[in-house]
């Protein structure tokens, strides 16, 4: 991209300062990885969680999810692109927009053809609602992203106790997290002792099918061997969440599960495209 290209803006959820080192919300991470994959110059605006509805509405965006009772679920990411005037408020839509608008930029095609068939356990317990991926472009990727979202979301109870809240809005953010999970307070979801160990084992087992996909091309570390795609970024977006919230020894265990495929994938994607670019802090 030309140095004269106006900077795009990525809206991400503020975490414990410096947010550039602790940010781990999965969907904004997917958007950041896609922007970096495409080498799109951009800045990051850190948004306090209680301010997300105001920010979305201020940019003319509706909520992209609904709670079970039909109320709006406002969340991030958002990307604004002054080069085209686009304002995009969903991680998958952001990747599709970048591919359509900048098809040859950066590392190339985000959506190369590949077999993304993914059989995963049905009826997984989800603490929060997921985005609707029906009717999206690149349908095989959209369906894959939906299944990966469900697989990891079913185990986010493991992340509750370690989320790096921004102290400036921690109390209100905890209330919002609890509301999203439909529990009276966030602490009731925290897992300890034997229940936590059982959850880790279930998580490991559930990831087995996805891990097998990473082994199909032994040249690795990506699903297509040496070639990365948006499917890899989706997985790493979720791995980043667990990187930022699990205990250190638990994260190290996860990286070694299933012959270490997730650890290698995370390291490769994070090294190539994970860096937070310029920052603009929003109070």
From TrEMBL:
Residues 184-271 form the Glutathione S-transferase UstS-like C-terminal domain. It comes from the Eukaryota. InterPro entries: Glutathione-S-Trfase_C_sf, Glutathione_S-Trfase_N, GST_UstS-like_C, Thioredoxin-like_sf. Residues 25-100 form the GST N-terminal domain. This is Uncharacterized protein. The lineage of its organism: Eukaryota, Fungi, Fungi incertae sedis, Chytridiomycota, Chytridiomycota incertae sedis.
């Amino acid at each position: 991209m030309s140095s004269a290209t106006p900077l795009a803006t990525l809206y991400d959820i503020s975490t414990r300062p410096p947010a550039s080192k602790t940010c781990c919300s999965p969907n904004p991470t997917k958007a950041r990885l896609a922007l970096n994959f495409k080498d799109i110059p951009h800045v990051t605006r850190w948004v306090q969680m209680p301010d997300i509805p105001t920010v979305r509405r201020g940019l003319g965006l509706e909520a992209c999810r609904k709670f079970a009772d039909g109320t709006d679920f406002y969340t991030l990411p958002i990307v604004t692109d002054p080069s085209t005037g686009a304002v995009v408020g969903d991680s998958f839509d952001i990747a599709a927009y970048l591919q359509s608008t900048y098809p040859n930029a950066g590392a190339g095609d985000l959506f190369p053809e590949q077999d993304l068939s993914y059989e995963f356990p049905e009826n997984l317990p989800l603490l929060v609602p997921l985005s609707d991926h029906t009717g999206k472009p690149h349908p095989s990727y959209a369906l894959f992203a939906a299944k990966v979202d469900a697989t990891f979301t079913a185990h986010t109870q493991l992340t509750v106790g370690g989320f790096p809240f921004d102290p400036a809005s921690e109390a209100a953010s905890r209330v919002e997290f609890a509301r999203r999970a439909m529990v009276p307070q966030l602490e009731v979801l925290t897992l300890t002792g034997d229940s936590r160990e059982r959850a880790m084992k279930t998580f490991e087992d559930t990831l087995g099918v996805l891990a097998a996909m990473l082994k199909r091309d032994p040249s690795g570390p990506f699903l297509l061997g040496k070639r990365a795609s948006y499917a890899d970024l989706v997985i790493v977006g979720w791995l980043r969440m667990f990187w930022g919230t699990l205990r250190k020894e638990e994260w190290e265990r996860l990286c070694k599960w299933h012959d270490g495929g997730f650890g290698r994938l995370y390291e490769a994607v994070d090294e190539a495209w994970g860096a937070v670019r310029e920052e603009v802090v929003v109070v």
